[in-house]
Amino acid sequence: MKELRIRSKIWLEVDGQSFLGDGRYRLLSAVQHNGSINAAARDLGMSYRKVWAQLQAMEKSAPFPILERRVGGKGGGASQLTDEIMVLMEQFQELRNQVNKEADRCFAASFQESKN
Amino acid sequence: MKELRIRSKIWLEVDGQSFLGDGRYRLLSAVQHNGSINAAARDLGMSYRKVWAQLQAMEKSAPFPILERRVGGKGGGASQLTDEIMVLMEQFQELRNQVNKEADRCFAASFQESKN
DNA sequence: AGTCGTTGTGCGAAATTTGCATAGCGATGT
DNA sequence: ACATCGCTATGCAAATTTCGCACAACGACT
């Protein structure tokens, strides 16, 4: 058996449909870091269209606002995350790390219990 | 905050590419239970083409044979799982349950730490 | 030899994804 | 007062991917 590894992921659902997972986490981080959806898209090497669509889908099922957008004005506009989503992102990141760690631990127990 | 739930999944990778996850697990189970790829596809409500393609992709990256196929003959043919993959599926299922349980536990700790 | 239901596959249709192109916006500077 | 600038938002056609129908090959059993 060569190079067998475990991977894990978690995501949060609202009313049974995906709300916050790894991909959206990256998107939101990029928006937070770059100050606008447009800059985030460039930073991620994705089209604005695509990033916008994903954020749109996210907000549609969100139980609270995700982004504060400003159209026009200085710099043409801007977007930033709401406090609520930033808090949730923090919790999400911690959960992900914990679950990931547990996955690695269980995998090691199952597959390397007999050390050579 | 309404109806926020955690979901988790795990999968096994060989040389960095997905090898066994939830979807393929279901496919393999259906093959095992139905005795042929064709019957499995019907059972799952999927087209034979699609099931076949996924199993094909799986075997391409597999470190050992997955299916024993028989073309022609009694009943037109048949397929069954190898012992190796059945052992791995067993381990996979256990891992999935353990990780899932841990995810639920961590989630509860993070989001319901203050019981009302 | 004929039958039967399976594995395996070519290929066009259908669905989805993608990004270009463009409209509308408004705080700021002139 | 109004021109500017870069951002948000979106229509739409092209590109890509997914999908499944249709059919060939196969071989144990009758």
Please tell me about this protein's structure.
- 2 copies of one chain form a homodimer.
- The first copy, chain A, is an alpha+beta fold.
- The mean pLDDT of chain A is 93.
- In chain A, a hairpin with a 5-residue loop joins strand 3 and strand 4 (77-81).
- Chain A is 54% helix and 22% strand.
- The first copy, chain A, starts with a strand and ends in a 5-residue tail after the last helix.
- Chain A has helices at 22-34, 37-44, 48-60, 83-111; strands at 4-14, 17-20, 67-71, 77-81.
- The first copy, chain A, has a single domain (15-111), classed as Arc Repressor Mutant, subunit A (Orthogonal Bundle), CATH 1.10.10.10.
- The interface between A and B is medium-sized, with 31 and 31 residues.
- Strand 1 of chain A pairs antiparallel with strand 1 (4-14) of chain B, so a sheet runs across the interface.
- Chain A binds a DNA duplex (30 and 30 nucleotides) through residues 36-39, 47-50, 52-53, 56, 69-79.
